Amino acid sequence: MKITFSVIKADIGGWVGHSSMHPDLMAEGERHLAKAKKSGLLIDYHVTKCGDDLQFIMTHVHGVDDKKVHKLAWDAFLGCTAIAKKLKLHGAGQDLRPVPTQGCTPARFGCGYCHLGSRKEG
Predict the structure, then answer these.
(1) What are phi and psi for residue 77, nearest 5 degrees?
(2) What kind and span of H or E run contains 46?
(3) Across the beta sheet with 4-11, what order do the strands follow?
(4) Are 104 and 68 in contact (CB under 8 A)?
(5) Model pTM greater than 0.85?
(6) Could you tell me which CATH number the domain at 4-116 has?
(7) Over the stretch 44-75, which tens digit does the pLDDT of each residue have?
(8) Among 72, 84, 6, CA closest to 33
(9) Domain boundaries, the chain
(10) DSSP H or E segment with residue 95
């Protein structure tokens, strides 16, 4: 079994400027990834933060740039952004705004991502 290690991050909204992450956003990310692990999409995961950037560290068997894994992160970031807007956090959802110079990738929306593993064969 080939395992892929994926890290996807986005600036969802700062609790005190860009310095921290509200615990409700961490909990929302955790909720989405726990559901994905239970369904078998993920092997394991860790939700973490650096300042106001929310990061999802995930292991799975779906290969590099898997659309289901990207959709999982995107949907989780959208849920977190809704909470950030409700809480009136600084820059709520700022990494989810399209960047016109990028193609249709997570980078198009300002999200950072990295995958380590091998592409699906066949």
Answers:
(1) -65, -35
(2) strand 44-50
(3) 44-50, 53-60, 4-11, 112-116
(4) no
(5) no
(6) 3.30.70
(7) 999 999 988 899 999 999 988 888 998 899 89
(8) 72
(9) 4-116
(10) none
